[in-house]
């Protein structure tokens, strides 16, 4: 994989992310009310969703195809999707992924918007999950639309 393009899917294109998840046997589904982002290199290799919540965004569904893992694809996609956003970004993750998300600028938090706090409480009935947050960076640069990975 040499060139990576990160794009926001619009309209009917949003179904491509659902197809990507299914193609890889993932139980993830794109958020109906959010943005669907993908990273492409000879086809979709990663995807995520961002939904508006309180004064920020909720990141869900981050998934990288097995053949594209350990190449910086997820980090690049997260940076592209969050470039230009305002407010904090929250996510829920399994405890074993904490260090990974910390490298992407997230930290463990107990301070959540009410909508996410109640959702996390429901999810924790059947899963071990942590809440993490990433305050919006003051950096004005973004990773752009393509890079070498």
TrEMBL record:
InterPro entries per UniProt: Acyl_CoA_acyltransferase, GNAT_dom
Domain N-acetyltransferase: residue ranges: 1-130
Pfam families documented for this protein: Acetyltransf_7
Identification of the protein by name: GNAT family N-acetyltransferase
Organism of origin: Pseudomonas promysalinigenes
């Amino acid at each position: 994989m040499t060139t990576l393009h990160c794009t926001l899917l619009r309209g009917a294109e949003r179904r491509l992310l659902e197809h990507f998840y299914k193609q890889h046997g993932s139980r993830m589904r794109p958020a109906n009310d959010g943005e669907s982002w993908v990273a492409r290199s000879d086809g979709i290799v990663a995807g995520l969703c961002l939904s508006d919540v309180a004064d920020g965004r909720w990141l869900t569904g981050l998934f990288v195809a097995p053949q594209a893992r350990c190449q910086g694809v997820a980090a690049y996609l997260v940076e592209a999707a969050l470039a230009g956003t305002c407010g904090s970004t929250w996510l829920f993750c399994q405890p074993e992924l904490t260090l990974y998300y910390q490298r992407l600028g997230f930290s463990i938090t107990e301070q959540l918007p009410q909508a996410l706090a109640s959702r996390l409480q429901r999810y924790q009935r059947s899963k071990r999950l942590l809440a993490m947050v990433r305050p919006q960076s003051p950096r004005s640069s973004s990773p752009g639309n393509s890079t070498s990975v």
